[in-house]
Amino acid sequence: GGPNVSTAMAVREQHGHDESMHTCAPPDAVVWPQAVGQVQELAALCYRCRVPMVPFGTGTGLEGGVNAVQGGICFDLSRMDTIAELSLEDFSVAVEPGVTRKALNSHLRDTGLWFPVGTVGASAASGEAMALGVAWGQEQR
């Protein structure tokens, strides 16, 4: 619905470029799913209608990966920001894709672990790369 979907040009342009030098290529619409089930439903709908899907994390990429060169729907995953599970025993963490490095480090503050900037995937700081980064950060102490 309304607060989770936008076709406003300013919003589309914001989601149609990253930090690269590529020209902005805005999507046709931007959606903000808030649960895995919503992502699955949206992806199925896009598949059935043959509409391109463009994932959007933080917009800090350097390759133009968020440019919707063939139009489509941008999935902005920033509202999916739950830190679901932390295992201190094996230095792993399960996060939703909208969790940032800063938010994770705030959550980890009292554990002795951290997620370092130099880790692969640190700018987007999500999913598997984040879990690997926590382990890497601990090993470097």
List the helices and strands and how they pair.
Layout: E1 5-6, H1 9-14, E2 29-31, H2 36-49, E3 53-56, E4 73-76, E5 83-87, E6 92-95, H3 101-108, H4 127-139
Parallel strand pairs: 2-4, 3-4
Antiparallel strand pairs: 1-2, 5-6
How would you sum up this structure, described in words?
With 141 residues, the chain is an alpha/beta fold. It has helices at 9-14, 36-49, 101-108, 127-139; strands at 5-6, 29-31, 53-56, 73-76, 83-87, 92-95. The strands form two sheets. Strands 1-2-4-3 form a four-stranded mixed sheet, covered by helices on one side. Strands 5-6 form a two-stranded antiparallel sheet. Strand 5 and strand 6 form a beta hairpin. The longest helix has 14 residues, at 36-49. Mean pLDDT is 83; it is low at 120-141.
Tell me briefly what this model is.
With 141 residues, the protein is α/β, with parallel strands linked by helices. It has helices at residues 9-14, 36-49, 101-108, 127-139, and strands spanning 5-6, 29-31, 53-56, 73-76, 83-87, 92-95.
